[in-house]
Q: What sequence folds into this?
């Protein structure tokens, strides 16, 4: 069974903010990003958005998987497949692909609201009918595509003095967030109803990385509320921004990135 790594770069950086890297990422001297599987002896190149990879077990002679952006949706396409079924890590049972003569075609929509690493299995009916132990002890026709979905960016815009934003949804952390200017020119960040994340971090201000000690999100669940402060030393007058990161400690699945933008700040 062949494992393939795909990186689902569904967003672009904002105001110089780079996409966060999960555990195992590194950048080589040529600037090309590679995924270093800690369990592997050698590096395996990832397949970024717009690229393709051969499916060695299910693909036959010319079967490949491609990741594309179609009408704002991130899709994994594969055609000319000799395997008939697929299953991701959220599905309870496998699904049948679209038949194309004697071959099969996969059109899989990546859920960009669920950041982190995910797996998409492509295999024969016999593979999905077999138990986990049988899959390990027998050779089946199957490929596993492993891909990474980065968190989306939530943008909070503050304008001038006395500013306050609306509530915005946190897709990864499952909750809401808003920003409010304080009397001392710092900014309060209020996080409500969060269930998945337990850590708050300020990672970048005005394009520069910060050495800021992250703080725990102590109150979780429905009707919970947490307040954090962006110190005024991180805020400049005029137009600038601060990047926050909310995540679950110990996990390489960051929950949400938040960009607080200050417009006509005075």
A:
């Amino acid at each position: 069974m062949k494992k393939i790594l795909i990186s689902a770069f569904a967003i672009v950086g904002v105001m110089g903010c780079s996409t966060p890297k999960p555990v195992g990422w590194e950048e080589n001297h040529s600037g090309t990003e590679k995924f270093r599987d800690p369990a592997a002896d050698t590096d395996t190149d990832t397949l970024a958005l717009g690229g393709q990879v051969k499916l060695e077990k299910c693909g036959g002679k010319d079967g490949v998987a491609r990741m594309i952006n179609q009408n704002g949706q991130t899709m994994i396409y594969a055609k000319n497949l000799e395997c008939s079924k697929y299953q991701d890590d959220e599905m309870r049972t496998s699904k049948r692909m679209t038949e194309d003569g004697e071959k099969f075609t996969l059109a899989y929509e990546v859920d960009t609201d669920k950041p982190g690493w995910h797996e998409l299995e492509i295999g024969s009916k016999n593979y999905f009918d077999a138990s986990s132990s049988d899959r390990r002890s027998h050779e089946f026709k199957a490929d596993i595509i492993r891909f990474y979905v980065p968190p989306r960016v939530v943008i909070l815009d503050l304008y001038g003095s006395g500013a306050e934003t609306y509530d915005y949804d946190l897709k990864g952390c499952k909750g809401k967030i808003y920003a409010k200017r304080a009397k001392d020119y710092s900014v309060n960040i209020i996080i409500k109803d969060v269930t998945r994340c337990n850590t708050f971090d300020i990672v970048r201000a005005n394009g520069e990385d910060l050495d800021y000690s992250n703080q725990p999100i102590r109150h979780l669940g429905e009707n919970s509320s947490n307040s954090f402060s962006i110190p005024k030393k991180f805020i400049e007058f005029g137009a600038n921004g601060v990047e926050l990161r909310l995540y679950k400690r110990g996990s390489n699945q960051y929950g949400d990135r938040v960009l607080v933008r200050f417009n006509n700040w005075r």
